[in-house]
Write a structure and sequence with these properties.
The complex is a heterodimer of chains A (461) and B (460). Chain A has 461 residues and is an alpha+beta fold. Chain A has three domains: 220 residues, PmbA/TldD fold; 113 residues, no CATH class; 106 residues, no CATH class. Chain A contains ten helices and 18 strands. In chain A, strands 1, 2, 3, 4, 5, 6 and 7 form a seven-stranded antiparallel β-sheet that branches. In chain A, helix 4 runs parallel beside helix 5. A six-stranded antiparallel β-sheet of chain B has the order 3-2-1-4-5-6. Chain B is of the alpha+beta class. Helices cover 19% and strands 40% of the residues of chain B. The radius of gyration of chain B is 23 Å and the shape is globular. Classes of the chains: A alpha+beta (461), B alpha+beta (460). At the A-B interface, strand 2, strand 3, helix 3, strand 6 and strand 14 of A face strand 1, strand 2, strand 3, helix 2 and helix 3 of B.
């Protein structure tokens, strides 16, 4: 069953994009391509920010992009355009074939084996129309309630970067020369607020958010505002600590940022460039036995869920790490061919990009300790709530980042800290994971529970 | 176009503008000695903005179909009905005096593929030949041309044509279990002539040199120490430590650690910092900003005293200041904000050698990856990708990458020596703010910062 009405309701016409994909593939083949692949991303987005109780920004748009990837034998090129007119598509196909002619002969270039497509895949529940049917005023009201709750939480909260509500509806359409043509719709929405706490002339900011495919699952705005306020308030009076070695606990947002680097390091794109510290580590133990990581493109309600990837390969759940063993990389058909492995359905290229690999719902499996138990197990150490900077190199594994958080004394959160860094190497950090929390919180496509790393260098005074 | 502006303002509002953009971009990637990825994308559209008091409504359409554009105009105009706080003073009529900063008759995007591939192949050859431990070389050439046209309800129509090129080489070196990457790139709003003074071999050799150097690097030190920043790209310190904090929107909203500090001392008197969008052929330069204002040179810090903020139309208007030509946006899909162009510190009198010699134990950092700042607390980081220990006034051993962390409002008060060797970066900087990326430049002479915390792993 095709759910065509969301976009047509906005556009006023019912357009079946798989027809366009079919047409473009056919024309590319006629123009001399030995194979072609079309990816269309089209949708509508809305965003509003309320700041200090009043409307600040209102943003709405319809967007679209069509990308065609042609293969002339083993030479490939990608051309993308936001202009879907006949003349523009004609030109795009012509340019793509010309560019492919200049590209190098690449024996691994191609489209996926046809049996990896599944025309009868069960549909995932990814499209929830409640948000797109709400008025702009109702959405602004959600943001206002959220910011009001943050501003009213404590007299030390006197300013705010605002509260933002966003929602989008996207249709992804895919088609290729194997005759696989399919599309799916997906909605997302999010509510976030970023209040400022101020004391003794010093300011601290923090934020909290909730994001789901279905607006009815969003955390209530009042709860979200209060949580953001608590996070900003507990940073007041932050100080530096002395340089030392210490156990480091990462809250779910901070540990998700560590997972992001792991996702990059297991991606086929990095591996075929030998640009990962996990090059050649498949099938070996690389992490503590507490570490099990999945990439699950079929996770119900997952922000990264999809029926097929950007090459039309059917989705599945991949066990990336199993109790510390590196079980699988994340691969698309190109990196798989190149590395002599099978694609895991992780092509995540956008219409205008060349093939690249990325996670779907990539997460660290929850453990059984509560965050409180984990903090309680640390005599003296650091609890990280925010990581900043670009000091992570997945080629060497070298890790050095700025952090903000709280200092732990005798198993309790004692006082806030900032202007310090933590450093180590991802290789050691993975093996030193000593506890994994039970508080898995999907606030993005990559997520994780609280994690304790036994020892890192904290640099401060 | 006037019809669309009227449609945008049909429900009220003080100002509306249309931003038309047509952009072509290509990216060519050479890996394993072959041109593996060739991509080209064409995007066009119009962004409609309506300002009502301090509120902004924005909508865009992909493409130039009249109905879509009118739909966008009406959508943006909705903001005028939203409850707001600030009454609107009248907006002044602006007139622009465009520069002509990038005369590139034939931008690289319009050149033959074969010419461009030759550049990549030279880099590949030189990178691989540099040392037997280089196991992978990747060279990427990305080019763009952008036509923009801005039509405002209170101003003239402004046009610009903006070419942009970046050439980047990364080399991976491996020895035993150790694996390191070196990256070098450059570019600007330039044509093929750029490569006369900076041939592909220049980038390839330096990327390979960095990767090999890192194979023998020792762990970086941890803790506070004097840090000497080399000239050029280390100017990213200014971008993070003070640049973002001096963007007018953050100050108007009292979100910045620099809010309310105009006229106060925020740096040592050796420090004068400017943002200059008018440097010919530079990556961060623009003839006009994305709101149609001519770019300029804005004095941010003069001999340690805070003198100015970088403004866009909205913030300038609400605070009664003149626009500074810093209203920028990533594309027609985004609303403009105050953004940096080329931000750098003016030269002082010391030589690089004098500055290094003055440090008995510290760090000399010459290349950086990215940086980030929390504009509210003022805490900023930037990550060194090439750095050396200074011991007894001499550069000794290379160290592995480390993040430096400091506090924006006081780090420049600790600058005790400024070099006479001002250099700008090679043209690779991209700045992100609120999810929007724009090309920028940074620069600085050699600087001595008396104390900054280095986030390495070696204590004591």
């Amino acid at each position: 069953m095709r759910i065509s009405f969301p976009l047509s309701a906005i556009k006023g016409v019912d357009v079946d994009r798989t027809d366009l994909a079919r047409e473009v593939v056919k024309r590319a083949e006629r123009a001399g391509a030995s194979a072609a692949e079309v990816l269309i991303r089209e949708g509508t987005e809305f965003s509003t920010t309320i700041r200090m109780g009043a409307a600040d920004k209102l943003h709405q748009a319809n967007f679209r992009m069509l990308g065609i990837r042609v293969l002339c034998g083993n030479r490939a090129a990608v051309l993308a355009t936001s202009d879907f007119s006949d003349a523009s598509l004609h030109e795009a196909i012509r340019d793509a074939i010309e560019m492919a002619g200049a590209a190098g002969e690449d024996l691994s270039a191609g489209i996926p084996n046809p049996d990896l497509h599944d025309p009868h895949a069960p549909s995932l529940a990814l499209c929830f129309l409640a948000a797109s049917q709400m008025t702009a005023e109702a959405k602004m009201n959600l943001a206002k309630r959220c910011e009001d709750a943050a501003l009213g939480y404590d007299p030390r909260i006197r300013n705010s970067e605002g509260a933002t509500f966003e929602d989008s509806l996207i249709e992804m359409t895919f088609g290729n020369s194997s005759g696989f043509f399919a599309s799916y719709f997906k909605t997302t929405c999010s509510l976030a607020v970023s209040p400022l706490a101020e004391q003794d002339g010093l300011k601290q900011r923090d934020y909290w958010l909730s994001t789901h495919l279905d607006i009815s699952l969003l955390q209530p705005p009042e709860e979200l505002g209060a949580e953001a306020a608590r996070r900003a308030l507990r940073r007041l009076g932050a100080r530096k600590v002395s340089t030392c070695e210490a156990p480091v606990i990462f809250d779910p947002l901070a540990s998700a940022s560590i997972m992001k680097h792991i996702a990059d390091a297991v991606s086929g794109t990095a591996l075929l460039r030998k640009a990962s510290f996990l090059t050649g580590k498949l099938g070996t133990r690389i992490a503590s036995p507490l570490v099990t990581i999945y990439d699950d493109a079929l996770r119900p309600g997952g922000l990264g869920s999809r029926p097929f990837d950007a090459e039309g390969v059917r989705s599945k759940c991949t066990t990336v790490m199993n109790r510390g063993m590196l079980d699988s990389y994340l691969l698309d058909s190109y990196s798989a061919r190149k590395l002599g492995l099978k694609t895991t359905g992780n092509s995540n290229r956008q219409p205008q990009e060349s093939p690249s690999v990325g996670p779907s719902n990539f997460y660290l499996k929850a453990g059984d300790q509560t965050p409180k138990q984990i903090i309680g197990s640390v005599k003296r150490g650091l609890y990280v709530t925010e990581l900043i900077g670009f000091g992570v190199d997945i080629v060497s594994g070298n890790f050095s980042q700025g952090v903000a958080g709280l200092w732990v004394e005798d198993g309790e959160l004692a006082y806030p800290v900032d202007e310090i860094t933590i450093a180590g190497n991802l290789k050691d950090m993975l093996t030193r994971i000593e506890a994994v929390g039970n508080d898995l919180l999907p606030l993005g496509e990559i997520f994780a529970p609280t994690v304790l790393i036994g020892r890192m260098v904290v640099s401060g005074n | 176009m006037d019809g669309m502006v009227s449609a945008a303002l049909s429900r009220g509002g003080d100002y509306a503008d249309l931003y038309f953009e047509f952009r072509v971009r290509d990216i060519l990637t050479l890996e394993e000695g072959i041109l593996k990825n060739a991509t080209k994308s064409i995007s066009q559209g119009v962004g409609v903005r309506v300002i009502a008091g301090d509120k902004t409504g924005y909508a865009y359409s992909d493409g130039f179909e009249i109905e879509e554009m009118l739909r966008a105009a009406h959508a943006a105009g909705q903001i005028a009905l939203a409850p707001g706080a600030v009454p609107a003073p009248p907006i002044a009529v602006s007139r622009s005096h465009p520069h002509d900063l990038y005369q590139v008759p034939r931008p690289l995007i319009d050149r033959d593929l074969t010419e461009k591939i030759l550049l990549l192949q030279e880099a590949d050859r030189v990178g691989r030949g540099y040392d037997p431990h280089i196991v992978e070389v990747r060279a990427v050439l990305s080019n763009e041309k952008k036509h923009i046209q801005i039509h405002g309800s209170h101003s003239d129509t402004t046009c610009d044509f903006q070419p942009l090129t970046v050439f980047q080489v990364s080399c991976i070196a491996a020895r035993d279990a150790d694996r390191q990457i070196g990256i070098k790139g450059g570019g600007g709003r330039v044509g093929m002539e750029f490569f006369n003074s900076r041939p592909p071999s220049y980038f390839a050799r330096d990327a390979a040199r960095q990767a090999i150097m890192l194979l023998s690097a020792v762990e970086a030190p941890a803790g506070p120490m004097p840090v000497v920043l080399g000239p050029g790209w280390p100017g990213i310190l200014l971008h993070e430590a003070v640049g973002h904090g001096l963007e007018a929107d953050f100050n108007r909203k009292q979100l910045s650690a620099f809010a309310g500090r105009m006229g106060q001392k925020v740096a040592s008197e050796l420090c004068s910092v400017v943002d200059d969008g008018t440097l010919p052929y530079r990556r961060g330069s623009l003839n006009v900003d994305d709101e149609g204002h001519s770019t300029g040179r804005t004095l941010l810090i003069e001999k340690g005293i805070l003198r100015g903020y970088m403004q866009d139309r909205l913030s300038a208007h609400l605070t009664g200041c003149a626009p500074t030509g810093n209203g920028r946006r990533e594309s027609y899909a985004c609303m403009p904000m105050p953004r940096m162009t080329n931000t750098f510190m003016l030269p002082g009198e010391s030589t690089n050698e004098q500055i290094i010699r003055s440090v008995s134990k510290g760090l000399y950092a010459v290349n950086f990856g990215g940086g980030q700042v929390d504009i509210t607390s003022g805490k900023f980081v930037f990550s060194a990708s090439e750095a050396y220990l200074i011991e007894g006034g001499k550069i000794t051993r290379p160290v592995k990458g480390a993040t430096l962390i400091g506090n924006g409002p006081d780090v420049l008060t600790r600058v005790s020596m400024v070099g006479n060797d001002l250099a700008l970066d090679e043209g690779i900087g991209t700045c992100g703010k609120d999810g929007q990326s724009v090309p920028v430049g940074v620069g600085a002479p050699t600087l001595r910062v008396d104390e900054i915390t280095v986030g390495g792993t070696t204590q004591g």
